[in-house]
Amino acid sequence: xxxxxxxxxxxxxxxxxxxxxxxxxxxxxxxxxxxxxxxxxxxxxxxxxxxxxxxxxxxxxxxxxxxxxxxxxxxxxxxxxxxxxxxxxxxxxxxxxxxxxxxxxxxxxxxxxxxxxxxxxxxxxxxxxxxxxxxxxxxxxxxxxxxxxxxxxxxxxxxxxxxxxxxxxxxxxxxxxxxxxxxxxxxxxxxxxxxxxxxxxxxxxxxxxxxxxxxxxxxxxxxxxxxxxxxxxxxxxxxxxxxxxxxxxxxxxxxxxxxxxxxxxxxxxxxxxxxxxxxxxxxxxxxxxxxxxxxxxxxxxxxxxxxxxxxxxxxxxxxxxxxxxxxxxxxxxxxxxxxxxxxxxxxxxxxxxxxxxxxxxxxxxxxxxxxxxxxxxxxxxxxxxxxxxxxxxxxxxxxxxxxxxxxxxxxxxxxxxxxxxxxxxxxxxxxxxxxxxxxxxxxxxxxxxxxxxxxxxxxxxxxxxx
Length: 466
What we know:
- By secondary structure, this protein is α+β, with helices and mostly antiparallel strands.
- It has four domains: about 20-135, no CATH class; about 140-215, Methane Monooxygenase Hydroxylase, Chain G, domain 1, CATH 1.20.58; about 225-305 and about 325-335, Immunoglobulin-like, CATH 2.60.40; about 340-460, Putative neuraminyllactose-binding hemagglutinin homolog like domain (Double Stranded RNA Binding Domain).
- Helices cover about 35% and strands about 30% of the residues.
- The protein has eleven helices and 20 strands.
- The strands form five sheets. Strands 15, 16, 17, 18, 19 and 20 form a six-stranded mixed β-sheet that branches. It has a five-stranded mixed β-sheet with strand order 7-14-13-10-11. Strands 6, 8, 9 and 12 form a four-stranded antiparallel β-sheet that branches.
- A hairpin with a 4-residue loop joins strand 18 and strand 19.
- Helix 4 (about 95-110) packs antiparallel against helix 9.
- It is flat, with a radius of gyration of 36 Å.
């Protein structure tokens, strides 16, 4: 008999031990546990309570409730910023601190361990989960992880110092960034550690300041500083940007430095990454000027995102190190010689030829700034630009004391070599209005005509293939 009883006890024990840790217990609403109706407070624990509606979510309600409970638990783990944290360096950059707070909360959740399921409950409509995490357990696990993190980061940091002492500044930056990648989720913590080369340091501050020190001392000097080119033709002259770093009064060429070339001014297409050679030279061989702007600007800047590698995918790190004002850069002016144009204006103000030619001269002025070099000799011109405009009086609105004036305008461009029309556009009945008299209304109509030409017609002219 005793053997039978013992056998039953063993079977029951095995059944209970095989139960899943989280079982949905259906109860009536009257049996709702206290922790669902009122958030529990346990001083020794972080608490996380999450709920999910069953309706419309099929079987996902369990994972949703779990996720909500973990989010709730993480929100209880307040981010205590150590007095030694590097974040105090960025009191004036609130957007960076907000990004860090979001980033850290996500990191805590992703690396959370040691929490346990305390209870779960559900009815026909809702499913609830209750997690808890011992504050003592959390602190112990965090301290152990932090110690390991600091040791791994220190190894990269020491390598970076060695590269910097050997004037290999590119690799120095890369290894400082590798060290930062290790500690980036713990920047609010005390990252103090003993360095064999620097003594007692705060890793966060030392890494950041070391990178900034190198960047501050890198100088980019372009040769030439100004180029003269023809429209839509390649730049045949090489652009050479010399990268050097000046430390302790000695300037050293910086090799293996990634520089990004782009147009800082103008709409030309250029996005080229060039690595500096052993002499510190980044050489841009050609750059096609496709924009019609006459004055453009090429920018060469350190592409720190390339040096960051996978770290760059993290928005917080990108904001911290790829902050534009921190990066060494230089600019090369590009003066573009536009096509030579001959201008024909025919402008009527009401029934008389205009003496001022307000619309025609305004049009010519903008073209000379953006597209063409004008000549009075048609034989020397590549194209002929013709503008014909006519203004006419409209009604007088006596009730409002308003005078109406209308403008018709036609614009065309002809290729002088082929004598073919390569552009044609215009508008009719553009209305201007003003009080007092038709002269005021005429000025308003002329101003609106020039605005329309500038905003609509000239951008279309930029697409002409000469």
